[in-house]
Amino acid sequence: MSGVYFINTVYSKHSLDSVTPSKPEMGAYNSGDNHLSQRSNVSIQRGATVLEDRSEGCSKCRSENGERKEEEIEAKEMLKSYVESATIHGVSQTNGPEHYPYRRRIWLVLVLLMAIILGYILYKQIALRYEYPIKTTTKVSLHSELPFPAITICNINQFMRDKVPDIPIVKHVLFYFSEYAKMAFGDYKHNMPDLDNLTDVSGEELKRILLDATPRLSDFFHQCRWETKIYNCEDLFRPINTTYGSCFVFNGPEVKPENMAKAVGSVSSLRVLIHLSNNKSYYSRLIHAGAKVIVHEPYQMPYPETDGFSLRPGLSATIAISRSESKSLPRPYKAYSNGYCEDTQAEGYANKLSEYQTYTTIHCLAECQLNRTREICGCQYYFSPGDFPVCSAKLTLTCLLPLFWSVRTDDFMTCDCPRECETVAYSADVSYADFASQFIEEQAARDSVTLFQEKLRENIVDVLVSFKTLNVFHVIQEPELTRTTIIGTLGGQMGLFLGASILSLTELLEILILLMLRAFKTCAAWIAGRCCVRA
């Protein structure tokens, strides 16, 4: 066993931070065994280094554990300080004196209950906002100048009898489309002739014949005055083709915006003398005698059958108009109880109508009915707009006439025609007087004044149109709930339930952030401590 030695090393333990080996108790070394002695020394040194590292790690762990406990104490003190000084009512009472059993717990429950109620109210406010409720406000704006509206005037007598050609099928068309036939017989089939025995007239020819039979501007107007100056009526009015036939419009769509008439006071008025030529009347859509006056925006198409004021012959009528504007909210708000409005003023809006330059509900309904007629008959009514083929006289009687007599409100229910979001409307106060007194009539006869030689009470209508006031009545829709109103409501509810304010919430937010940071730091220290123990 020569050459093998056992080294018994005794360690002197002075402290946890220093470990030094003592000298060996026994053993003999020879020169041949120096390498063993060197290896043993290296092992001893490595062992000492490991013990030193572990000792240092444990010291660090104890230090971090101590710091963690200190931070926990500081967090509790911070929370206690907040509870004692919080401006939210009731919070300080959760750590107040126990005047009776469970006082702190009762206050804690009350504070939590108020916070829950406040959260519920906030939730309901936000949920209600996304239902997009609307409130309506009204106001009156004062103006020194207003754009004058378009004034369309039609002779209720659509056709001049002496201009209707003696073509039987054309006369049948006018008769069966008249209100007289509907009122007198109640059935469009009454006494309908055998069309096979009548010569047909093409659609384009029928349209030309009927337009030629309508009153001429020069025959219809006797005198026209704008403000205080008398004008040639052809300089003020333009013919306009409507579903009622040919009418005449002042300040209409063909007038450039810079040339539009404006009202700057009571002197800005339009006055016209109309000659109805009742002695030449014929079958018309309406059975009345007189004139129809429609006040509308220049871009709107007038509909004499349903709109405007009827003025009988022999009258002097004064029409005092007032302007009103409405502005509804576009999507996602429901401007009307049954749906949304059409935002024609939106950027990039494209008019979905093909026969009208601007979108209005009336234009849309008219085009919807027009498309229905075109689909069923393959042609259209002779006074309808567009380049679609016009029905011949026979097709007018066999296809258009039944549709004309059977039109119901339900026919328009399938039309996708929401009201426009922004509209302008005119209301009017109409007053009447006889056109001329008996003395004036007698004096005019003595002076041989041409106008008064006519049968005044049968043919003449005097119309004066002016603004009643330059004030504009506005009806405006606004969101009932906005971020601002929600914040205001929340502030009021916070004050009611918790006596809190924005600064109170800032205090709460501050303490929550500080506690979260300390919790994160404590968690990180705890994880580091676990790693030290495992090492």
TrEMBL record:
- Work out whether the entry's keyword set contains Translocase: no
What is the name listed in the Swiss-Prot or TrEMBL entry for this protein?
Acid-sensing ion channel 1-like
Q: Name one GO molecular function term.
A: ligand-gated sodium channel activity
Query: What is the membrane topology here?
Result: Multi-pass membrane protein
Q: Name the species this protein comes from.
A: Plakobranchus ocellatus
- Which residues does UniProt call coiled coil? none
Give the family, as the similarity comment puts it.
Belongs to the amiloride-sensitive sodium channel (TC 1.A.6) family.
Parts of the chain that traverse the membrane: 106-123, 494-517
Instruction: Give GO cellular component annotations, separated by semicolons.
Output: plasma membrane
